[in-house]
Amino acid sequence: MRTLRILSLGAGVQSTTLALMHHEGTIEPFDHIIFADTGWEPQAVYDHLEVLEGMMEIVTVSAGDVRDFASTNRVRGQTRFAKMPLWFRGKNNRMNLLRRQCTREYKIDPIERYIKREIMGLAPRKWWPKDVLLEVNLGISTDELGRVAQDSRKKWKVNCFPLIELRMSRDDCRTYLASRGYDPIRSACVGCPFRSNEEWISVRESDDEWDDAVAFDLSIRHILPDAESYLHRSGLPLSEADLDGVNNSSLLHECSGVCAN
Fold first, then answer.
1. Interhelix angle for 13-24 vs 170-178, to 10°?
2. Which CATH code fits 2-255?
3. How many C-beta atoms lie closer than 10 Å to residue 261's C-beta?
4. Distance (Å, rounded) from C-alpha 65 to C-alpha 189?
5. Which of 5, 55, 151, 213 has the fewest CB atoms within 10 Å, i.e. is most exposed?
6. CA 93 → CA 75, 220, 234, distances in Å?
7. From CA 116, how far away is CA 112, in angstroms rounded?
8. How do the pLDDT tens digits run along the chain, 261 residues long?
9. Distances (CA, A) of 44 to 3, 108, 111, 183, 261
10. Where are the domains of the chain?
11. Is 49 helix (H, G, I), strand (E, B) or coil?
């Protein structure tokens, strides 16, 4: 059986480490490196991606802009949810999260679609060949074992975690990158609702990205028919949230090694 080795590149700390190891020849090389663009990555991620593209072949795929759902309100009885895990106040007066669909629809699916159509040349609805195993390598390190999900639920596809095999933590990756002059930011959409206050403050340091996030936050207020939705877990408009008070923990690890790596 032939193995097709893919690196799912988020252009963050861990996946950049794997990409550079591939480039330097210190790990088994990947057959393809693929970056899935949500259309709302921080400019620092795009800039870093451009540097990597100057060193190795990277394919960028996209399912469109993750924000596009905000222009259409969800009506009562509709089964389709907003694609981002927005915060809303439930009947118990606690803040809850909508189901997350963005990772699947804007990261996993477009990468898999590109592999099937462009790399494998499979027509729509054609079965994956039995003699090829798809190995998707993800940038998850030893301090993030809770993100590991080897079972892809598809017999022809397996998720692999080279950093765990190498016993490398996120700090190890940062040390490795620093020795080569790199300091990439954590990869996640500008307005990801999983951000901690510290991460929102980082977004606020860029006027354009902060203004963009604030404007988007206003646009999603009435996505739900029976509750207001927000980007910030406080249930306040992003422009009014107390980011400088008590910090909260980041939930970016929820992206299963595809977004925040």
1. 50
2. 3.40.50
3. 31
4. 11
5. 151
6. 22, 19, 11
7. 6
8. 899 999 999 999 999 999 999 999 999 999 999 999 999 999 999 999 999 999 999 999 999 999 987 554 444 444 445 678 999 998 888 999 988 889 999 999 999 999 999 999 999 889 999 999 999 999 999 998 877 765 567 889 999 999 999 999 999 999 999 999 999 998 899 999 999 999 999 999 999 999 999 999 999 998 888 899 999 999 999 999 999 876 666 666 556 556 767
9. 33, 22, 22, 10, 14
10. 2-255
11. helix
What tokens were used for 98? Answer: 């909508």
Write out 50-109 in H/E/C secondary structure. HHHHCCCCCEEEECCCCCHHHHCCCCCCCCCCCCCCCEEECCCCCEEECCCCHHHHHHHH
Both tokens of 101, joined, read 């669909």
116 contact partners, CB below 8 Å, separation of at least 6: 122, 128
Distances (CA, A) of 178 to 16, 161, 175, 202: 12, 22, 5, 20
Q: Tokens 């620093």 appear where? A: 178
The 10 Å Cβ neighbour count of residue 160 is: 16
Distance CA 239, CA 151 (A): 40
What DSSP assignment string belongs to 197-250? HHHHHHHHTSHHHHHHHHHHHHHTTTSSSSS-EESSTTSS-TTTS-TTSS----
Can you say how many angstroms the Cα of residue 114 is from the centroid of all Cα atoms in its chain?
17
Say what the pLDDT of residue 169 is.
97
